[in-house]
Amino acid sequence: MRIEDYQTIRFQRRGRALYVIFNQPDSRNAFAAQSHTELSHVFETAALDAESDIVVVTGEGHSFSAGGNVPAMRANHESPELMYAAVREAKRVVRSMLECDKPIVAKINGDSIGLGATVALLADVAIATNTSRIADPHNAVALIAGDGGSVIWPQLIGFGRARHYLLTGDRITGSEAANIGLIYKSVEAAELDATVDAYVDRLLELPARSLRWTKETYTLPLKQLATLMMDTGMAYEAVSAATQDHLEAITAFEQKRKPRFNTQA
């Protein structure tokens, strides 16, 4: 896709930095249908952009991304074809972020949930506000964390902590995330713009080629791990999307009540 083709993502240039901005603040930048499709292409577009050497990803408004969209979840539950398309796109999101040879900086300006958290954590450097919330609550809607969360969380904070957060979906603040090494740094909200811009400027002062080759080198194990895990993870996510428990989670959300899951396997 060309930059001018995007409808739910806007772009901004600052020198040789390309800012990728999720632009659906009314839905807290949740991903559904068109925005999910555009997400699956945007890092390929950024990688091919001849006018930039650094990519910054952030969200418009007060959220980075709320992750999944409940109407889209219902549509995927009811249509295997739509779910298959979503699976294919989810794998492309992870692959394209790892294949993008330009350093990606995540500017976490607010809640980063589910797929939103996966995107933020797959970035090379993540800087958040202290009060941003990061979580992967797939199990809360009877899905498995197959869209990349199971790949990246353990690599950042180790299996001991990652297993807890992936199983429970507990939310962690930006300051807590920085303290345990889930992200690079957290700052006060008023300082986020200046902090990220200064960090990007620092990277832009370094040789673009060596930065790219450094990323290619340290990303290699993640690429191999993603290749090993994503097909299985997304297959399980597709199966879980077709279950009655997932439908119950969707219905409970729509009815503003607590879901009543079948807790036996």
UniProtKB/TrEMBL annotation:
InterPro entries found in the cross-reference section: ClpP/crotonase-like_dom_sf, Enoyl-CoA_hydra/iso, Enoyl-CoA_hydra_C
Gene3D superfamilies registered for this protein in UniProt: 2-enoyl-CoA Hydratase, Chain A, domain 1, Lyase 2-enoyl-coa Hydratase, Chain A, domain 2
GO molecular function: catalytic activity
Short name of any one Pfam family annotated for the protein: ECH_1
Transmembrane segments: none
Domain of life: Bacteria
CDD domains hit by this protein: crotonase-like
Family membership: Belongs to the enoyl-CoA hydratase/isomerase family.
PANTHER family in alphabetical order: ENOYL-COA HYDRATASE, ENOYL-COA HYDRATASE ECHA15 (ENOYL HYDRASE) (UNSATURATED ACYL-COA HYDRATASE) (CROTONASE)-RELATED
Annotated protein name in UniProt: Enoyl-CoA hydratase
Native organism: Tardibacter chloracetimidivorans
